[in-house]
């Protein structure tokens, strides 16, 4: 029986050694799994969320711009355009000319596209040769202001119909003030 004892010890020692190695490897692998942050599926990485100006806020902005113009006896059209270039709200005041709708939409589109008032952009549209004025759908006359949230433009308010771009922009700014600072 004494001859079997060393062999038993050897088998028990090897088994204990293998168990220790297996345990250590398992713990290490488990720790490595915990250290890795879970990655979202590839499809989720391709999704981008953007802010959108709600229809209630867009309507308040357009109405405020129209009211400001009517107080001064001006007949205008107000357009609120989203970041995609789609019309959210369009208000055509009584007596506004037929050209005012297109003018208001293009000013709003320009303001949201470039994230600046159209009066500021008009300076960049000057000169010979190709300029930003050549981009389809834009209009570089005063009267368009961007609406920003979370650090970027989400909509544009455009006004057309007053005798000057300065007045159009004044009325668009009144619309912007009506909805306040967005986040």
Give your account of this protein's structure.
Helices cover 48% and strands 15% of the residues. It has 2 domains: 4-43; 55-179, Haem-degrading domain (Beta-Lactamase). The protein is of the alpha+beta class and 183 residues long. The chain has helices at 4-35, 42-45, 55-71, 100-114, 118-122, 165-179; strands at 77-82, 87-92, 144-149, 152-160. Strands 2-1-4-3 form a 4-stranded antiparallel beta sheet. A hairpin with a 4-residue loop joins strand 1 and strand 2. The chain is globular and about 65 Å long.
Number of helices: 6
What portion of the residues fall into strands of 2 or more residues?
Answer: 5-15%
The CATH C-level class name of the largest domain: Alpha Beta
Enumerate the strands of the largest sheet in spatial order, edge to edge or round the barrel. Answer: 2-1-4-3
Strand-and-helix sequence, N→C?
A: HHHEEHHEEH
How many extended strands?
A: 4
CATH superfamily of the largest domain: Haem-degrading domain
Distance between the first and last residues' Cα: 84 Å
Shape: globular
CATH architecture heading of the largest domain:
2-Layer Sandwich
Major beta sheet summary: 4 strands, antiparallel
Give me the Rg, rounded.
Answer: 33 Å
Give the proportion of residues in helices: 40-55%
Low-confidence region ranges: none
Provide the structure class: alpha+beta
Looking at the structure, the CATH topology of the largest domain is Beta-Lactamase
Please indicate the count of domains.
2
